[in-house]
Amino acid sequence: MSTKIKEIKDKYGYSFEQEVIDKLTKIQHTLALVIEKLELIEERLNKIENKEKKTGKYKIVVNQRRDENRTRNIYSLEIMRKQGIIFESDLKIRNKEKFIEDMRSNGIIVIEGTKERVLVTKEFLDNFISILRECKDIEKVEEKLNEKQLRLYRLLRDSGLLIYNTKTGWILLSPKT
């Protein structure tokens, strides 16, 4: 951690980190809207591309659009890796299926609960599982989890993917990914 970040953290404390996380979440939602608009533009460009492909006039534009799609996918993946988890209900984009499939193809784990799907990084899931393993008391597990982990815990529990065995501890059933 850089010294400047340490200074800010010492000065403002934990709430500063939470504010940054909240602002990043707002940026993510704004980005989702921008992505949605880009997808509409992409559809229009596809129509133009199909009409003008025979003449070859728009070849440069088509290549540029493909580069932008790659950049968008990389940026979305960076956000996903920073947050660690995204719930489908939090996605504010029109084409959720395409987004989820893009994330899945880039190594993000997709857990399909009974109510919604959740995208998680391996690191987030490993950390979540290690916290569960440390907690042997089913009554106190919710106290040990942060907000995102608690939401995942409840989704897995309610979907029957997470059970507690008094002899072995927590068991995460293999989620449909």
Strand content: 5-15%
The average pLDDT value, as a whole number, equals 79
Order of helical and strand elements:
HHHEHEEHHHEE
Largest sheet: 3 strands, antiparallel
Overall number of structural domains: 2
Structural class: mainly alpha
Helical content stands at: 55-70%
Termini separation comes to: 34 Å
The shape, in one word, is flat
Neighbour order of strands in the largest sheet: 1-3-2
Keywords:
two-stranded antiparallel ribbon; 177 residues; 64% helix; three-stranded antiparallel beta sheet; mainly alpha; 11% strand; single chain
What features would you describe in this structure?
It contains 7 helices and 5 strands; from the N terminus they run H-H-H-E-H-E-E-H-H-H-E-E. By secondary structure, it is mainly alpha-helical. Helix content is 64%, strand content 11%. The protein has 2 domains: 1-83; 85-177, no CATH class. The protein has helices at residues 3-12, 14-52, 59-83, 96-105, 122-134, 141-144, 147-158; strands at residues 85-87, 109-112, 117-120, 162-165, 169-172. It is flat and about 65 Å long.
